[in-house]
Amino acid sequence: MLKAVLFDMDGVIYDSMPHHAEAWVTSMKHYGLNMTQADAYRCEGMRGVETIAQLARQQWQRELSDDEAQEMYAHKSACFAALGPAHKMPGVEHLMQTLKQAGITICVVTGSGQHTLLDHLEEEFPGLLHKHLMVTAFDVNHGKPAPDPYLMGLKKAGVSAHEAVVIENAPLGVRAAKAAGIYTIAVNTGPLPDSDLSREGADVVVKTMAEAETLLAARGREQGTGDIFHVEH
Question: Minimal CB count within 10 Å: which of 58, 93, 106, 187?
Answer without folding.
Answer: 58
